[in-house]
Amino acid sequence: FFASKQCHICSAPDPTDAAMWAQSMRSLGALCLVVSVAGDSCPADRSGCRTVGAAGSTFLQFTSRVRVDSDTLSCANFDAWPDVDGKTCGNCQALVLTKNFNRCDRYCESFGHRCVAAAEEKDESCKVEEEKACDEAITGTSDMLCTCQTTGEDCYGSLNGVASIEGASVGVEYTASLEKCRTACSGKANCKSFALCPQWNRCFLKDRSLTGNEAVRVNGNCKTYFKTACGTTSTTTTTTTTTTTTTTTVATTTIAGGLCYASLDGVASVEGQGLGMVLTTELEKCQEACEQREGCRSFARCPQWGRCFLKDRSFTGGESSRTNGDCKTFYQISCSLTTTTTTTTRDPESGNMVKVVSYNLYWWNAFQKNSWKSDGIIDNIKSTLRPDALGLQECDSPSEVRSRSDGAVEKASEFQGAQGVMVKPNIFSTSNSGSRDLDATGKWGPRYVTWVQLTNTSGGRPFWHFNTHWCVHSEGDRVCNEDVRYRGAQNMLKTIQENAGDEPVVITGDFNANMNEKGIRHFLDNGFKLAVNSWVDAIIYSEHWDLLDKGIGEMAGSDHRPVWAELWLRSNC
């Protein structure tokens, strides 16, 4: 699709047709709006259609905004809609407050619906100022126009454990209820399955479709549930054992028979020659692309960048790998191949799970110069990230974060240089809080490490949380560069060793460095592991932890994406 001057697209009133057009336009990258009109075709004067101007012969990008007729949507009565700002517009559309949601998909999902359309309102009315995508943040205004539709009923089957390959994360719900997990997954268009872990009060939503015949692994009481046609058998007969070593088929269903995929723990240190790139976050689409590309034997999937890099190298599974954000190498194997996989059964009595988050709040801008941005940041902490332990940078007032988040987090460590640690109330006892100047000053003054020792109030061993914000710019005799940050890293590691000794440690920070700099490598060369990073923000942990899950959040008004990791603290290490 190329634009000459304008693009007009109409669809029939059938919502299925409108959805089909929308999907087609999305896949082809078109910028045309799909509009349903009361008739079989566009009128000659196109009065029932929206018009999109486009200058020149440029490739258009689809904006994912669809309008449908009033008789095509079903939704709850407006009395059941939360945070309606006194104005309903019919056709399952209402003017709602942005404060608690910021995006229409989140708003609709909050009461079991899915978003159909989103827009910024004009003059606090049903008039559209600017159309938005459902998953696009609407900021700088107190109201937004959301069109929400009921999701319909989904049926679920289950595996006898956790799927060996679960797919990409599309969210986490804090619940032990199977019904609430089902509701949450049904409310997300890209959720195809979920892992329910009652012992941790967590439900991990995933984008992978399952059939019931997939290989599984043992992980405490966790179990994978998947969407299936109603009326089909709901439980697989796959068996596993709870011993520490199990034999499973490491495979996923692909578009062609005879080839399946296994994965390394990270990105292969030597990947082979590149054969192309696919713009997708979906594992299945990466597999399909590799199957269809001659010479493709493996690929590196990087969900955080929406990329899949096809490679020509074959693997056996024993190759070395490196950490590069969420990227992971997948390689082709025979579907009949079995491999011995070590799995650890995590009993709730054998340790504790902690959700750790690192977040730079951009205080001078988001809380002062453009203070409206702070609403999104606070809501991100309170409603989306929901950390157990939170390392903050550029935070001038932890007390303001506490009060505005309705006590979702509270101060746990000292704050120096506008950074420190906050925690969820009532789950930790705190002790041994402190701070130290790292002797790595740049343009903006001294840089510190802050810390606190935390112990779960329900039992378990204590651990130390260290937080930092390294220098970035130089001015006059205040020089900041890789060597200065390396000196700060050496002083920081010494401080960790002096305080924590050989006890468990987690480190959060805005390191103002790429992950291959000497400062970061100093930690990794001394027994620490990188859990997750986005740009210069990262979470690092000691050998006492198992990494269960990780992810990168939304800026929500900051200029940094928060990073998070679900870590399991072993009691016997």
Present the secondary structure layout.
Elements: E1 6-8, E2 10-11, H1 15-28, E3 34-36, E4 51-53, E5 66-67, E6 84-90, E7 93-97, H2 104-109, E8 113-122, E9 127-132, E10 143-150, E11 155-158, E12 162-163, E13 169-173, H3 178-186, E14 193-197, E15 202-206, E16 216-217, E17 223-228, E18 245-248, E19 259-263, E20 267-268, E21 274-279, H4 283-292, E22 298-302, E23 307-311, E24 321-322, E25 328-334, E26 339-342, E27 351-360, H5 363-369, H6 373-385, E28 389-393, H7 398-404, E29 410-411, E30 420-423, E31 428-437, E32 448-456, E33 463-469, H8 482-500, E34 505-510, H9 518-524, E35 529-534, E36 537-541, E37 545-552, E38 563-570
Parallel strand pairs: 2-3, 3-5, 27-28, 33-34
Antiparallel strand pairs: 1-4, 6-7, 7-10, 8-9, 8-10, 11-17, 12-16, 13-15, 14-15, 14-17, 18-26, 19-25, 20-24, 21-23, 22-23, 22-25, 27-38, 28-30, 29-30, 31-32, 32-33, 34-36, 35-36, 37-38
